[in-house]
Structures are given as C-alpha cells and as structure tokens.
Prior knowledge:
Blueprint: H1 2-23, H2 28-49, H3 57-83, H4 86-95, H5 98-108, H6 114-130, H7 143-168, H8 175-196, H9 203-229, H10 232-253, H11 261-277
Amino acid sequence: MIWLVLSCVTGFGFGQLFKWSQRQGYNAPTVVSVNYAVLAVTLLVYLWANDQLYMSPDILLVGGVTGVTFIASLTVMTRALEVANVAAVLTSFRMSIVVPIGLGVWIWDEPVSLAQIAGIVLSLGALFLMTRGKGDGHLQDGTKAMATLLFVFLLQGVAHTSMRWIHYAGLSSELLNVLIVIGSTAGGLGALIVVTQRHRPRFGALRMGAGIGVYNTIALAIGLTALSLYPGTQFFPINGVSIVLMDNLVAHFFWKEPLSTPARFGAALSLVSIFLVMD
C-alpha cells in the first residue's frame, strides 16, 4: 500500500511543479525536454557509477516506445489547449485512464471484480465532475477541436499502457535502465520540438526543467514500482482520482481558485470510487 500512496503523492507533486512553472511563464516544451534529459543523465551516471548500467533489446524497445508516447502525448496536449476548451482538454486527459484499464484486462487478463467495475465507472464520473470549469479555453466547438481531444484521450491512454507494459515485459527489476531510455527518447524528441518552434530557452526555464527532472526521476521510479505491484484496474483509477482530488483541494486553498459545485460532488464521489476499486 505504501508504494501506491507514494505514487499518488509524488504524481500530485509533479503536476504542481508544472503548474508553478506555468505561473512563471516558462515555455512548456523547454521545461519538459530538460526534465527528461536530466532524468536520463542522472540515472545514467548513477547506474554507471554502481556498475549496473545495462541495455538489452527489450529495454531499448519498451523504453523507446514509452518515451515516444510520453512526448507525443505532451505535444498533442499543448496543441489541444490552443484549439479546445481547457476543461474539455483536462477531462479528456484524465479520463484516458480507461484505456490502460481496458487494455490491461484484454491483453494481460488483469483481474477485475464487479465492485471494481462499479468503482472505475464512478471514478470516471468523479474525474469528469472535478475537471469541469477549469477555464474558458479558446475554440470550444468544431471538428478540429473534437479530433484533437480524441487524440489527447488516446495518446495519454497509450502512454499509460506503455508504462504498464514494462512490468509485463519482465523489466520490473530493470526499471532504472528503462527510465534512461524513456528520458533520452522523450528529451531528444522534445528538444527537436523546441528547435522547430525556433524558441530561445530562458535560463529560468532550463533551471526549472532541471529541478523537475530530479524530482521526476524519483516520482517515475516510485510510480513504476507501484505499477509492478498492483493491477492496472486498481492503480490507474486510484492514482488518477487521488491526484485530481488533491489538485482540486490545493487549487482551492493554496492557488485560491474557486472550487465549483460539480467539483465538490466529484470529490465526494471519488472517495466512494476509491473504496470500491480497492475491493
């Protein structure tokens, strides 16, 4: 249980660091790219110093694919915020947990009970309610916006599924080596995105990305450890709902953002869903 709790807490902290970065006006692709690059370099030095650095075809394949899905999800998310309502983007992003849950049951025969199914359904409802009213966004309607939201949902779901794949690929004991490949792939592709945007990184953004990278090294290691110990039908609903619940509470009490009535109902519903999923 401790790994699951730590995963929720560190995942929440990761999101808050990016919120702080956003408040400072730093370029998101720059911060994310540096974050992944620092993660990869930190682990590379650590494993090399301890004579544990090892790469196999499976590590390169799983880590490479996961890194691509990470940066692809981020890129589409950034684009979505330009063409769709912010609340709709957040809802698509958070509700993508249904993808790894469904694929986990289908591909890897992960166990799921009727109570857990009910909890998963309630968790989706809770996420929907808690991500209502997060901002006005830009273009709320149109085929382009709807297609982009669909891509956000699918790509984030695939990214989560790729993380789950690490366990089923038999690489749980080599998590840090896999993280090096993930960080290198996502960081490299992210740097290309920054270059194509012709954006000149600010020192503050580089420093922020480096700090988040050190934090993310610990957070991802904890999250992947938890994923190796719990089925996706438990991990993803509990992790997703808990983080959004904490996001809402901190947004209300620390960032001084009003907590809407739907969000309050969602928070209450999330507690029920967690109880059911833990069955």
